[in-house]
Q: What sequence folds into this?
């Protein structure tokens, strides 16, 4: 089945990560994945949540939001209460980024990674994890350079891709047009060694047959390898 944008089944959309943004945050990354764009910023605070006080270990958390015109029709701005979808995504992003960090080496400080979707065309949560890691890495590097930590708190690289099944065919990196019609969609978070950090998936068009899982994982591994290379290049340029 040909894809509507001409991509091969195992082909990512065009992926770039820019870091020279000139903002105030300790770490910044603007990730573009096809038509999806997410601004990721990392803020370091010299305090930790109550459950981490006295532990000599830090914390990494995340917040996720979509700008009102990130979508074809305006969505209402989240002001006083985060909706369920945003809560789910920011918890996924936070868990994924914590898997990348030695919290004890971070010390009793918090890194908050804000992921603001400027334009959404599918894959915003995987883009948030991928770009969020770059912003986090830059912020942790600055802690090392300032002599505030003993060694880089980042212990492993973490990246994410989406996979899915559309009309019986496994696909990598679904955009919104594909994702909205997919029988199954899945988000894979992996380390640089292609170890799984998290699998988040749903079969909406019918149950996923077990033999389809291995091809989806292979697609995800191939995609993550490319994403990891783009992350490394972005961190090298930062």
A:
């Amino acid at each position: 089945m040909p894809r509507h944008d001409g991509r091969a089944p195992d082909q990512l959309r065009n992926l770039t990560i820019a870091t020279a943004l000139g903002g105030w945050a300790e770490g910044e990354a603007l990730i573009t994945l096809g038509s999806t764009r997410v601004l990721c910023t990392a803020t370091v605070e010299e305090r930790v949540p109550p459950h981490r006080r006295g532990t000599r270990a830090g914390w990494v958390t995340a917040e996720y939001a979509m700008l009102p015109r990130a979508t074809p029709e305006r969505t209402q701005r989240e002001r006083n209460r985060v909706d369920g979808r945003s809560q789910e995504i920011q918890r996924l992003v936070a868990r994924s980024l914590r898997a990348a960090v030695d919290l004890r080496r971070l010390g009793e400080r918090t890194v908050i990674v804000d992921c603001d979707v400027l334009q959404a065309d599918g894959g915003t949560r995987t883009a948030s994890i991928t770009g969020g890691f770059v912003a986090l890495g830059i912020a942790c590097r600055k802690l090392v350079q300032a002599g505030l930590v003993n060694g880089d708190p980042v212990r492993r690289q973490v990246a994410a891709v989406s996979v899915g099944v559309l009309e019986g065919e496994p696909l990598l990196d679904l955009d919104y047009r594909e994702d909205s019609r997919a029988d199954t969609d899945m988000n894979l978070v992996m380390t640089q060694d292609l170890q799984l950090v998290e699998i988040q998936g749903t079969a909406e068009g019918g149950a996923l047959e077990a033999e389809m899982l291995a091809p989806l994982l292979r697609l995800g591994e191939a995609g993550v390898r490319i994403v990891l290379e783009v992350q490394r290049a972005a961190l090298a340029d930062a």
